[in-house]
Design goal:
Blueprint: E1 3-8, E2 11-12, E3 15-16, H1 20-23, E4 29-33, H2 41-54, E5 57-62, H3 79-99, E6 104-109, H4 111-119, H5 121-134, E7 142-144, H6 149-156, E8 161-166, H7 190-203, E9 205-207, E10 213-215, E11 220-223, H8 230-243
Parallel strand pairs: 1-4, 1-11, 4-5, 5-6, 7-8, 8-11
Antiparallel strand pairs: 2-3, 9-10
Helix pairs in contact: 2-3, 3-5, 4-5, 5-6, 7-8
Length: 252
Amino acid sequence: MIDLNADLGEGFGRWALTDDEALLSVVTSANVACGFHAGDPSIMRRVCELAARRGVRIGAQVSYRDLAGFGRRAMDVPADELADEVAYQIGALEVFARAAGSRVSYVKPHGALYNRTVHDADQAAAVVAGVRLAVPAGALPVLGLPGSLLLTAAAAAGLTPVPEAFADRAYTAAGTLVPRGEPGAVVHDPDAVVERAVRMAAEGAVTAADGSRVAVAARSLCLHGDTPGAAGLALRVRRALDAAGVRVEAFA
C-alpha cells in the first residue's frame, strides 16, 4: 500500500509550472505550494478547489522564503522565525482548503528546507513547532525522508511521521538524496522512474548511485510536478503499481 503525492500549485501570477488538474487525477495527496517558494492566493484557492472536487487530500508544502530561488537555496533562518513562517504558510492554505470544503491534512517541507531537516535538529524542531503553532489542538502528519531528524522530531511531538521516497531522485548509499547540483541527481528516464517506483513500493528498496541496494521504508511516494511530462509519467507509475498489486491509497 502506497500513497502518491505530487507538488502542485507551483506557479506565480501568470506563470505556471505544474499541470495541477492532470496530476490531481492520479495522485492521492497534493502538496500545495504556500507562497514562499511558489504559489499565490489565487493559485492556492484553485488547487484546493480542484483537490477537494477530486477527493484528493490537501497538504501544506512549506518552504524557506525564497521565491527567486524556488526554495532550493540554502538559507539560515532563526528557529523561532522559521516556526512562525511555517505556521503562517499552513494557516494561509487552511483558509482556502476550508473554503473548498476540505482541510489541510498534512505538512511537507520543500526543497532546501526538506533536505536541511534531514540532519539539522534545530531546523527540524522549528518546522515541528510551526506545525504545532498552526494547529495547536491537532496532530497533522509530517512527510519527510526515512531516518530524518524531522520525522524524529515529529514523532517526539506527538505528530505522525510519514516516511517518503522519490522515484525520480538518485539516492546515496546512506539513503539520502543526491544533491541537485551533482550529476545524475535527477532520474530522467521514464522507464527507470516507473521501475524504481514499483520496486520502492513493493520491495522497500532502491539502487543507490554507487550501485548498492538501499532500504526505503516509505508510506508515500513523491512524483515531482515540475518534471517535463509529469502528468503522463505519474499515470504510468500508477498503472504500474496497480499491475504489480500495490494498492494506491492515502496514508491514515
